[in-house]
Specification:
three-stranded antiparallel β-sheet; mainly alpha; single chain; flat; Arc Repressor Mutant, subunit A; Rossmann fold; 5% strand; six-stranded parallel β-sheet
């Protein structure tokens, strides 16, 4: 590389922070005069050379660097050095430029060095400067030259020795290098970094093994390569293409770079379908397979059988050790060799590792390398042998696996085998297994319409398995709907299946309006020949409308459902939900009660026997929540969760946990709701359902608005809104806003709470979700009254009263009585609070009862009935503590102290929590000064503020802490240890922040 083609640009290594820190520690000790050695062990392409170059660049200003690399003299060394193929060499001429390197670099649009550091090579059809890593001065040395330099002695300065591809050195050089590294220690002034394959050559030295990049690092590297490298397009990388590249790249930077470099701009942006398999992996797989030729024939045969046996297993599952033992025996491998290979890794040099009854490749890419390195005839023979063994085993497990192995052995399209695979991919198998079988059937299908339909069916099963990226990749291989024919096999679903899967994916991870329209269109296409999928499409469209807050869209979708074939329970559910949303509440509730208990028994819940499928149980849980039967919703939700765990599909797990958590919130079981929602959030992330994540963040925000801390509530609210707003999810947006308002009330900020909740509960374009907004009314009433704006409440209280008359929610009567107490004249409020507490005693639930007690105590204290106020405030504090409502307990404790009763364990003067945690730092300083007895002018002088600013902040302090005077503030904060000196001034009135 000449100076005219070199551009200095910043680079970075992705996902190697731990390794860089270890190397930095070695270099630091080296600069202090001490020595040491470190082996960076990794398969090809994971970045061992990049780390050596990074270390050499970092050390070159402090001392000399010797950089040794494998020569091109031997086949092993040359093949191993293909790790650097096609990359600009920062230290001199490339160590190897043979056929593997040329194949790896041909047509490459961008590259990365072996640690994932982005470099940018100009493509064949494009000229331009090529950025390169910052070069350093030492030329690459052969192993013999490097060892000779080491024997010459020290240079008097800290010496760094970098030995690249040391596993490919001749044995004598490896032995000498290892011996030199073992002798290093304190005072030697020499550090040795060795990059080698993960083999036994340097087992006695300190070793850092490099694993594949994690998902975040791989994504960052891919985005860098696609967006900043040569060959970058003006259009963004298509999400489906991006996910497929990350899947196929397997966390290997060089493989990821090679795959990206072989895709045209049209394929990168999704305008042209991706080829299958993706091109570009050949060079990396050959580099992985270089060790195979040196192995004995039995070891190579066993590795081929193990790699072939993984083809019918889920990704990452390895293969069955017993099957591999039988296959090896059938292939004529000696039994003693098989025992050694399967129970100890020596026979295969560690490429196979056993974990229980499973055998895995280490590294996983080695399995692909074995299949790539083996001639096609031998691969087909291995698959046919495995198919025969699996067929002999019989049973459910063996049938589909045997057909999958026969599909791998097929030399080309095979209509009969494809039909057998499709027929076998039925319900007893997991969704992932069925997806794999249908995809193989599609590959074997010569007829384009049928092939597209089978790819769509495979995508549907991948979506049910919780693998949306795989589902989208399979959908990308389907033809347009007009090209697919009708009259297809039941498994494939006909021309409406691809739109149906698109709608399902949008329902879980896209805009709700898109999901609604796609699923309605899919139902129209599916209806004539696949009524089962058409029903699910309509129910999905109704779900999308519900989460949007679109009652009309919900009624439209449910109105197109014919419930006749699905039994009385489903018919009652459909009719009841439609009646409720149409305003016929009494009729709807009567129908929905049949879903819970058609025989009239309050305890039986025969729906749990009549609808044993998870989806039916989830619908029953929804019915219970709409009715306000909170206890029934919790019981049904627990049964639904158990059914999903037992029967699947896994993609329903986040939804089951969400419904159960929401029922537990309504029941006041906030800790249980938080635990289930956290599990649901993890499941939603694992199965690629960001819309479920948004809803679960909203549930977690509601739990945190009770339990605290405020930071957790705010974080979950922000996460919920970040997912809900772009996708039009009104339900989680309303829940999150309600949670934020309730958290404001907990810390004594009623004005902010009223501002948040007002648009949700009042009529207008920003009104909240129709199924949630009424539940936020008690919080809104409390916020408005405490904020001093009581005239805005008559309409919303009347609406809440109408809802309380209809619902079976046990807390509704108590909450209504509390709202009446807050808005009642002084001579009626006592009776209203007593009524509310009587309802609470019947309904149970610590949190809502404690809120009523707190408001009642506040009301009594503000009317100077201090002694009477202490009892409800004390009871409120204990109840809040019992249900772990920490912020609410702080508020109750402050009120109780203001009523003249000390609170054990209260934090009196806090800079970061306790009584003052609701205040800003400026407000805390002002409050402490005022509690010490300072006037507003004295506070202003001390804090370098204007008296008007102090007055403004002090009014907010009074509102946040629910105190009315400076005396109450001083009592609330307690005695100060260092009172502020007072200057003689006319005292201000203690009843107002500013005074007369």
């Amino acid at each position: 590389m000449t100076s005219s083609t070199t551009v200095r640009s910043p680079h970075r290594l992705y996902g190697r922070g731990g390794e860089l820190a270890i190397i930095q520690g070695l270099l630091t000790r080296l600069r202090q005069g001490d020595g040491g050695a470190l082996v960076l062990a990794a398969p090809p392409g994971l970045g061992r050379t990049a780390l050596l170059r990074e270390a050499a660049s970092a050390h070159r200003s402090r001392g000399p660097v010797l950089y040794g690399t494998a020569s091109a003299a031997g086949t092993a060394a040359a093949t191993a050095s293909a790790d650097s193929a096609g990359l600009p060499d920062p230290v001199g001429p490339a160590a190897y430029t043979g056929p593997a390197a040329r194949a790896a670099s041909a047509g490459r649009a961008g590259s990365a060095d072996r640690g994932g550091r982005a470099t940018h090579a100009a493509p064949a059809d494009r000229a331009g400067p090529v950025p390169a890593p910052e070069p350093f001065t030492p030329e690459p040395l052969t192993p013999e030259e490097l060892l000779a330099r080491l024997r010459d002695g020290s240079t008097g300065r800290p010496l760094l020795v970098c030995a690249d591809d040391a596993h490919a050195w001749d044995p004598a050089c490896r032995t000498a290098l290892a011996a030199a590294a073992r002798r290093l220690g304190p005072g030697s002034g020499v550090g040795i970094l060795i990059a080698a394959d993960d083999g036994p050559a340097f087992a006695e030295l300190p070793t850092r093994r490099l694993g594949p990049l994690d998902e975040d690092a791989s994504a960052a590297l891919l985005d860098r390569l696609a967006g900043a490298g040569a060959g970058a397009t003006t259009d963004p990388l298509d999400p489906v293409v991006r996910a497929e590249l990350l899947r196929e790249g397997a966390g290997n930077p060089r493989l990821l770079t090679a795959l990206l470099g072989h895709l045209t701009p049209g394929r990168l942006t999704g305008r042209t379908p991706l080829p299958s398999p993706l091109p570009g992996a050949e060079g990396v797989l050959e580099a992985y397979a270089y060790r195979l030729d040196a192995l004995p024939a039995p070891a190579r045969a066993l590795l081929l059988l193990a790699a072939a046996a993984q083809e019918h297993e889920p990704a990452g599952a390895g293969t069955d050790a017993l099957l591999l033992l039988r296959a090896g025996t059938r292939a004529g491998l000696p039994r003693d060799f098989l025992d050694d290979a399967l129970f100890g890794p020596a026979a295969t040099e560690g490429l196979l590792q056993r974990a229980g009854s499973r055998v895995h490749f280490s590294p996983p890419l080695a399995a692909r390398a074995v299949l790539h390195h083996t001639p096609p005839a031998r691969r087909r023979a291995a698959h046919e042998l495995l198919a025969a063994l699996l067929g002999e085993a019989g049973g459910r497990a063996g049938t589909l696996a045997a057909l999958a192995q026969r599909a791998c052995a097929a030399p080309g399209p095979d209509h009969a085998l494809a039909a057998r695979l499709e027929a076998a991919a039925t319900a007893p198998y997991s969704h992932a297994e069925r997806s794999s079988a249908l995809a193989r059937a599609a590959v074997l299908t010569p007829d384009p319409p049928l092939r597209s339909a089978r790819f769509a069916a495979a995508a549907e099963q991948a979506a049910h398995a919780g693998d949306p990226d795989r589902a989208r990749a399979l959908l990308a291989r389907t033809a347009a709907p007009a090209e697919t024919g009708s009259g297809l096999a039941p498994t494939t679903g006909g021309p409406g299946l691809a739109p149906y899967v698109h709608g399902l994916l949008a329902l879980r991870s896209g805009p709700a309006v898109d999901a609604h329209e796609a699923l309605l269109a899919a139902a129209a296409l599916l209806g004539p020949h696949d009524p089962g999928r058409a029903l699910h499409a309509l129910l999905g469209a109704a779900d999308a409308a519900w989460v949007r807050g679109d009652a009309g869209g919900y009624l439209e979708a449910m109105g197109r459902v014919d419930p006749t074939p699905y039994g009385d329970v489903f018919a009652s559910y459909r009719a009841g939900m439609c009646a409720v949303l149409a305003g016929r509440t009494a009729e709807g509730h009567a129908l929905l009660r049949r879903c819970l208990d058609p025989d009239g028994s309050a305890e039986g819940h025969p729906v749990l026997r009549r609808c044993p499928d998870p989806a039916g149980l989830l619908r029953a849980g929804v019915a219970a929540l709409v009715l306000g039967e909170v206890a029934a919703a919790c019981r049904i939700g627990a049964r639904a969760l158990g059914a999903v765990r037992t029967r699947g599909p896994e993609v329903l797990l986040p939804q089951a946990l969400e419904y159960l958590a929401y029922a537990e919130l309504r029941a006041g079981l906030h800790a249980a709701a938080r635990a289930h929602a956290l599990e649901g959030l993890h499941a939603a992330r694992r199965t690629g359902q960001p819309n479920s994540s948004a809803r679960l963040h909203a549930v977690l925000a509601l739990a945190a608005s009770v339990e605290g801390p405020a930071e957790a509530c705010a974080a979950h609210c922000d996460a919920a809104l970040a997912g809900a707003v772009p996708h039009g999810l009104a339900q989680p947006a309303t829940l999150a806003t309600w949670a934020r308002g309730r958290a404001d009330l907990a810390v004594g900020r009623p004005e902010e709470a009223a501002a948040r909740l007002g648009p949700l509960v009042r009529p207008g374009p920003r009104q909240g979700h129709f199924a949630v907004r009424t539940l936020a009314v008690p919080c809104y009433v409390e916020a408005v009254v405490l904020g001093g704006r009581g005239g805005e409440l008559s309409s919303v209280v009347d609406e809440f009263a109408a809802w309380a008359d209809r619902t079976a929610d046990p807390q509704a009567p108590a909450q209504l009585a509390r709202c009446r107490a807050l808005t009642a004249p002084a001579d009626e409020a006592d009776a209203r609070y007593a009524e509310a507490l009587a309802h609470h005693d019947r309904a149970g639930g610590d949190f809502e009862r404690a809120r009523t007690l707190l408001l009642y105590g506040q009301w009594l204290r503000r009317r100077r009935r201090t002694r009477e106020a202490r009892t409800p405030l004390r009871d409120a504090l204990v109840a809040f503590q019992r249900c772990s409502a920490r912020a609410w307990a702080e508020r109750a404790g402050g009120e109780l102290r203001a009523a003249g009763e000390p609170v054990a364990g209260a934090v009196r003067d806090t800079g970061g929590g306790g009584v003052l945690s609701a205040l800003t730092p400026q407000q805390q300083r002002i409050a402490r000064c005022v509690a010490e007895g300072a006037t507003n002018r004295e506070v202003a002088l001390r804090l370098s503020l204007s008296p008007r600013t102090v007055d403004h902040h002090l009014r907010n302090v009074f509102a946040a802490l629910s105190v009315r005077s400076r005396t109450e503030l001083a009592r609330l904060l307690g005695p100060q240890t260092s009172p502020m000196p007072r200057t003689p001034r006319t005292p201000l009135s203690p009843q107002s922040p500013q005074g007369p």
